[in-house]
Amino acid sequence: MRLRLVSSQTVRQELGLMNCVLKQAHQEWGIILPYGVPSVRKLKIPQGRERRLEGDEEIRLSHALKNTSNVRAIFLFAIETAMRRGEICEMKWKHLNMKKQILFIPITKTEISRTIPLSNNAIKILNGLPRRIDGYVYTKSTYNTIRDVARTARTQGGLDSGIHGTGLYSRGRGGSVRVLISRHLN
Fold first, then answer.
1. Over the stretch 31-78, which tens digit does the pLDDT of each residue have?
2. Which sequence spans correspond to the domains of the chain?
3. In Å, what is the CA distance from 13 to each residue of 25, 45, 47?
4. Whole-model pTM above 0.70?
5. Residue 24 belongs to what H/E stretch?
6. What is the number of other CB atoms lying within 10 angstroms of the CB of residue 13?
């Protein structure tokens, strides 16, 4: 069965593609299928994992990252902005408007560009970074480094081993709520 090899989301996307092709063949090209266009039930997508940081976990993670200034800056920036690891690694200085405190993200996981507000802390983090000659805020090799360093920091910080990622971002009305989400930095 295909689900043993790939995720349910992948199977769902593949079935959607096949359905579109069969409908196109039938409606646009006049190809008659022996049993008509099959109707396939969509697979349920599992809900993403979510775990809130508790007590001093944010401090412990930050402390565990103290010797990795680049990843620590990303960690703190992720908390302030709710950005995914890939979005942070693709950031370019030209997309930042420091006066208006906004960042334009042209390419996202959902393929919908967005503009996000930057907190004073996010601006402070960015101001502490050196300017790279290639225009990126962080080096491209940072993507996997974040994952690897985050795993080590999670262990050093004493966070439970049941967490599969270390994606930290803030969200909430008015105030900031620290959330640990596996899909963001893992």
1. 887 776 677 677 777 666 566 667 787 788 778 878 777 778 888 888
2. 1-46, 51-185
3. 18, 11, 17
4. no
5. helix 8-27
6. 13
